[in-house]
């Protein structure tokens, strides 16, 4: 009887942990993405919800909503120094301070889920 009870309790504990693991990992990914965005200076011009010198991440997410290749496009944009217009002048957009594609994809996903 004790063996069955132990198996049930162990199974519940593992099931609970596995159910919470994606939430915890998602938060860690969000924290890492935001930290990289801050380190890269993105939040000087962008805000999550408010327009600053550049569109908010909420506006960017809305622009890409429903596009199958949104993540790919955004990764390319934040990684290559694409041209942008600020006050009518064309400038080069700063790139993320990483060469790690997984980190760039994480930032793109973070922006797209705002």
Task: Kindly describe this structure.
- The protein is built from five helices and two strands.
- The termini are far apart.
- The chain is 64% helix and 7% strand.
- It is globular.
- The protein has helices at 2-39, 42-45, 57-64, 70-80, 101-112; strands at 83-86, 89-92.
- A two-stranded antiparallel sheet has the order 1-2.
- The chain has 114 residues and is mainly alpha-helical.
- The relative contact order is 0.15.
Which helices and strands appear, and what pairs or packs with what?
Layout: H1 2-39, H2 42-45, H3 57-64, H4 70-80, E1 83-86, E2 89-92, H5 101-112
Antiparallel strand pairs: 1-2
Helix pairs in contact: 1-5, 4-5
- The succession of helices and strands, N to C, reads HHHHEEH
Based on helices, strands and strand pairing, what is the structural class? mainly alpha
Radius of gyration from CA coordinates: 20 Å
Sheet with most strands: strand arrangement: 1-2
Question: Which properties best describe this structure?
Answer:
114 residues, globular, two-stranded antiparallel ribbon, 5 helices, mainly alpha
What's the short version?
With 114 residues, the protein is mainly alpha-helical. It contains five helices and two strands; from the N terminus they run ααααββα.
